[in-house]
Amino acid sequence: MRILYAAIDQTVPAAHGGSVHVRSVAEGLAALGHDVHVLASPGDGAFPPGRVAWVSMPPPLGSRRLRLLRSGAVLRAARALRPDVVIERYYNFGGEGLLAARRLGALAVLEVNAPVIDHPGSAKQWLDRLLIAQPLRRWRDWQCRVADLIVTPSARILPDHVPPSRVLQTEWGADTDAFRRGATGAVPFARATGDTIVVFVGAFRAWHGAHHLVDAMKQLRARGRHDIKAVLIGNGPELPRVRGAADGVPGIIFTGALPHAGVPACLAAADVGVAPFDLTAHPTLAREFHWSPLKIFEYMSTGLPVVVPRIERLAHVVRDGLEGLLYDAADPRGLASALERLTDATLRAELGTAARSRAVEHFSWNSHCRALDHALRAAREHAHPDRH
Fold this sequence. Notes:
By secondary structure, this protein is α/β, with parallel strands linked by helices. The protein has two domains: 195 residues, Rossmann fold (3-Layer(aba) Sandwich); 167 residues, Glycogen Phosphorylase B (Rossmann fold, 3-Layer(aba) Sandwich). Helices cover 38% and strands 18% of the residues. The protein is built from 14 helices and 13 strands. The strands form two sheets. The chain has a seven-stranded parallel β-sheet, sandwiched between helices. A six-stranded parallel β-sheet has the order 10-9-8-11-12-13, sandwiched between helices. Helix 6 packs parallel to helix 7 and helix 10 crosses helix 13.
């Protein structure tokens, strides 16, 4: 199939999750034999070489809120390609890919990574009420109605009127070839004999909870555990706060942002992966944890046992005592105690081996793209022409 993937507000290449997602899906579908063309913003360097055709098309002024103004350009690109499928990354102020699919009679696919529904008290709900006619809700509903297929990690963030038959609920994934035990490359930290290296990778936003890892390290030092070291990889708005909290605490290393291609070697040099999400800092996530966190899949793929708070969605990914340890986020000592348990090398090896197996079977980009390929073929067979 010829596939046009409209992701114009995503920069490629880049280290953030959206960029990794777009590149991985595009390359995964191309590897399955599809002719994939991607509309994206140019990122850090040239577009990746390979089977995917990358087209530079950033949103006006670099703002995703102005994405819809690129509707004409997206339609022209679609007319030139004559795609069988148009995939668009959902955004409330988007819809340019769906409009093109509707005009050309192509299969319309909406990739939903954020809530379409309004949660009580949300900014979108407040604005809709102010505008009385609720244009934001009506536009979101239109996008969901015209989509032949919606791909999402959680169907609970979709409107009730979307029939389950048009939803592919699936997690995102990891490159299980790149993220593996023994991955080599530059590693910006060292270890001493007997160390247990705990790693965090993230964009340092409040709800990523990196400050909780620093708090846990302080508790471990107070317990006399100097053999547990923490490596925090990434950059973001919370980094100064987290650095400040870590000031004077030995054994905490900040690497700054790294190219995504450099992360596998860093994870392979660590022992434990941590994702200490703080849902109190993100009311929407607290109501429904809709994320499909790439870091967790990449930890697992590398063969690291994973430590996460006990959240319903995450408990289905990382099973407590099987692929990692879950802790009670309400217990201020929970994270530190879980990390201390994982100084047991035998336990780490057992959990890490199981984590790797689970990632390869269920949470790889390869498995994601195979499921998407199957859903695209089924949707093409059952699409209703009158909806276009």
